[in-house]
């Protein structure tokens, strides 16, 4: 006995058959609606009943799409690793020096330069070093390991981009060129910073930590009333909110982002370890740790006018 089928059901079956002939797969939900490509890709449902887990997934997907849209107007100098934090090696470095640099930086790729970082020649991948020095196995590996080490033999090409390039465009270029590291160079040829494909992907999905990443150091720690031990990279606006103090006039709020930047502006140089920099309002910034290029840690002593007045009266 033939099965009774409505015209609507028959039309839907014909469309499905046509889709199968084209190789399409467009599964339907329980209400007979076709799900879109993104929904099918992520395994989402268009049903009216949405559980808590699915709601959370939808919120995460919206956040991802928002991050992707933000990259359309985001410049690479907004996300680059600053020059002072770049771990790089000189092209004539020995195998021991290169190994120490990989160990100190905990990175899989390191920029290679000639004399100064402003004359980059490429980058070196730790995998190439391992394969060239015996990890490949066999007689060929032993022969390679017996040769004098030359860093120039395993240098790979890297991208050089301007600070104004959009981060989304750089991500596309890295995919096309299959090069996962770029130096950010200003109009005079000086290196401003470095961007890796991991930095770009993290703008979309958030921080990606692996087994070699160490836990982030706390931004600051309160040692006593009005006294803080702080990382120089701590966000100035966050510290001001925590300590309930205003350390910058409004017209300079956009010029300085970190506590270290504030101290640098006050001293107009990189102060030495142990030096105390005074703020016009009476606050003191003691440099706990620094090198010739940057400030690392500070001890902040905030001036309390009421307490000072009380102590003076006593």
UniProtKB/TrEMBL annotation:
Biased composition (Basic and acidic residues): 1-11, 19-32
Molecular function GO labels: flavin adenine dinucleotide binding
Keywords: CBS domain, Repeat
Annotated spans, Disordered: 1-32
UniProt entry tagged with the keyword Acetylation: no
Domain of life (superkingdom): Bacteria
CDD domains xrefs: CBS_pair_CorC_HlyC_assoc
GO cellular component assignments: plasma membrane
Coiled-coil ranges (or none): none
InterPro entries (alphabetical): CBS_dom, CBS_dom_sf, FAD-bd_PCMH-like_sf, FAD-bd_PCMH_sub2, Ion_transp-like_CBS, Transptr-assoc_dom
Residue intervals of the CBS domain: 80-140, 154-214
Protein family membership: Belongs to the UPF0053 family. Hemolysin C subfamily.
Full protein name: HlyC/CorC family transporter
Protein's organism: Pikeienuella piscinae
């Amino acid at each position: 006995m033939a099965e009774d089928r409505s015209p609507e059901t028959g039309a839907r079956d014909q469309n499905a058959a046509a889709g199968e002939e084209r190789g399409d797969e467009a599964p339907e939900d329980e209400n007979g609606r076709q799900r879109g490509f993104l929904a099918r890709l992520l395994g989402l449902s268009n049903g009216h009943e949405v559980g808590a887990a699915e709601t959370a997934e939808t919120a995460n997907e919206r956040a991802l799409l928002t991050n992707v849209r933000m990259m359309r107007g985001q410049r690479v100098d907004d996300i680059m690793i600053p020059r002072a934090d770049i771990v790089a090696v000189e092209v004539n470095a020995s195998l021991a020096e290169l190994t120490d640099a990989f160990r100190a930086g905990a990175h899989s790729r390191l920029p290679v330069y000639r004399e100064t970082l402003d004359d980059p020649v490429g980058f070196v991948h730790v995998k190439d070093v391992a394969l060239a020095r015996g990890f490949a196995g066999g007689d060929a590996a032993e022969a390679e390991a017996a040769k004098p080490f030359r860093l120039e033999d395993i240098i790979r090409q890297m991208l050089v981009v301007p600070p104004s390039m959009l981060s989304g465009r750089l991500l596309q270029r890295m995919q096309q060129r299959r090069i996962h590291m770029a130096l950010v160079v200003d109009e005079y040829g000086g290196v401003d910073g470095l961007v890796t494909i991991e930095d770009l992907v993290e703008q979309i999905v958030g921080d990606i930590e692996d087994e070699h990443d160490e836990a982030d150091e706390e931004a600051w720690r309160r040692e006593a009333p009005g006294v803080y031990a702080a990382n120089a990279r701590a966000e100035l606006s966050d510290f001001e909110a925590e300590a309930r103090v205003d350390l910058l006039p409004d017209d300079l709020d956009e010029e300085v982002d970190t506590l270290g930047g504030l101290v640098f502006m006050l001293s107009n140089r990189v102060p030495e370890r142990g030096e105390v920099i005074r703020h016009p309002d009476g606050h003191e910034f003691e440099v706990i740790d620094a090198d010739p290029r940057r400030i690392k840690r500070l001890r902040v002593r905030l001036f309390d006018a009421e307490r000072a007045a009380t102590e003076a009266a006593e």
